[in-house]
Every structure is written in C-alpha cells, then in structure tokens.
Amino acid sequence: MVKRVNGLDVVVDLNKNFKHFGLTDYEARTYVALLSLTKGTANEIVELTGIPHSKIYFVLNNLEKKGWVVVQRGRPSFYKAVPAKYALSIAKDRIVLKLQNAENEIIKELSKLSTSDLIAEKGELWTIRGFNNVVRKVEDLITNAESEIFMGFTTENEGFLRVFKDRWARVLKVLSSQGVEVKIMLAGVLDVDDAFLESFGDLVQLRWVNSDDYRFMGIGVVVDNSEVVFGGFRTGKDLSTWWSDEKGFVFMLKEMLEIRWQESTNILT
Questions:
Q1: 3-class secondary structure for 198-238?
Q2: Buried (b) or exposed (e) across 76-108, using 16+ Cβ within 10 A?
Q3: Kind of pairing, strands 181-187 and 148-154?
Q4: What pLDDT score does 19 carry?
Q5: pTM
Q6: Do 153 and 164 contact (CB within 8 A), yes or no?
Q7: CA 23 to CA 9: how far, in whole Å?
Q8: Which domains can be identified in the chain, with CATH numbers?
C-alpha cells in the first residue's frame, strides 16, 4: 500500500516494519524522504513529509542518535540517510543488546527468589489404597525426614504394629540418632514387651493413649510439617489412607496429634 504525502511516495507497510527496528512514524517518513535525496535540509524534509516544523529537529536528532542519518552541521545543516543495509544492522544489534541486558536482569532478579516464591503454594491430596502401598508411602516419608517425625496409629490394626516393631522402629531410631525429633504415639491395646521398649532408650519419645476416639483415625504421620499420611479406616487390601502436602491438612493433623499427645502416657519410663 502506497500513500501520497506532499509529493513523496511513502510506503505505509514499510513504515510499519520500521517500527520493529525502533523508529516512530515520523522517523520512518523522514528516513525514507532522505533516501530520495542526496542530502537535505530540515526545511526540505518538512516539505516532502508534511511533518510539523516544530517536530523535525527532534526527529532528526533521534535518527542521528540511532544511527540512521549523518549530519553536516552548518547554516543550514544538511542531513544524509545512512544506507539501509548498515542502518538496519546497527538497529538490530542495538535491539539484541537491549534484549540481552533485559535477559540478564531478569535472571539476576529471579535468582534472588526461592523456588517457593516462584511456585504458587497449592497443595495436593492423593488417595493411597492397600496396606502394602500405605506402608511404602509411610516409609518413603520417614526415611526422607530432615527435622521431625510425628507418628500415631491404632494397635487395633495389627499390621501397623507388626511393621512398626519389625521395620519402622529400627529406621526411626537411626533417624533420631542423626538429630531428627521422633514422636510416636500408640492407641489401643499396648501389645509390646519390655525389651522392645527398652531398645529405644532415650532416642525417641514413645507414648500410649487409651482412646476409643483415636481408633477411628487408623494412622497419622506428619513429617517436617510439610507432608502427611492419614486415615486407615479398614485393613488389608481395603485399607484406605490419604497423602497430602496441603498446609491445611498438615496443620489439622499435627494439631490433632498434639492434643492426643497431651492426653497420652509416656511408656518409656
């Protein structure tokens, strides 16, 4: 599309492309006008482009700074267009440099943020079914604990008590010796012998609560105040629990365990 402006054929679509290289409409029109002249004065450019005289010197100064025109100063000053090949190359280099600087600044600022600052804190909730799957998930949580494990379960589920005595107790004692705070609470019938209890020594805190209400809980595990496994209303393949890292669930289960903990009895003394 070609538009006639005061005797100069200005390629309108070309002007749109000039904008990608950082030129305004006035600047593009001025540059195209100068390409049609060997050299020109401000008054001649005004005549060709129709740009207001009050704006033309500002436009020409910008074009000079951007590398699109050169100036022969005098009375009057003469302006000459830099060949398009070189002017476009200079403009492209300037754009690339600007983008690189912006990229470096973005990376610099983002590096100051932690991952948790960049990711929305939206927790998840997953169902875990089947006794073996629940056991594996609990073991995954406790073996990766860094600061605290709070575990409570009902002894009415003989499977939990058996796994606790055969596997979890050994892992928990090792973690406790490495500085992880371990609190274990059993609910229901206390079917453990003295030798087993004595094996804990001072490594873990082990308590018992005779609470009918707690039996419906099944199992509850909170690790590092960040993840939980809770539930376990049935046994065997029908056992169903949930895993979550949602802050509300973690807080709720931790508070419930803390309340029961205050009601419990220390069985290591």
A1: HCCCCCCEEEEECCHHHHCCEEEEEECCCEEEEECCCCHHH
A2: eebbebbeeeebeeebeeeeeeeeeeeeeeeee
A3: parallel
A4: 84
A5: 0.52
A6: yes
A7: 18
A8: 2-96 (1.10.10.10), 124-266 (3.30.870.10)
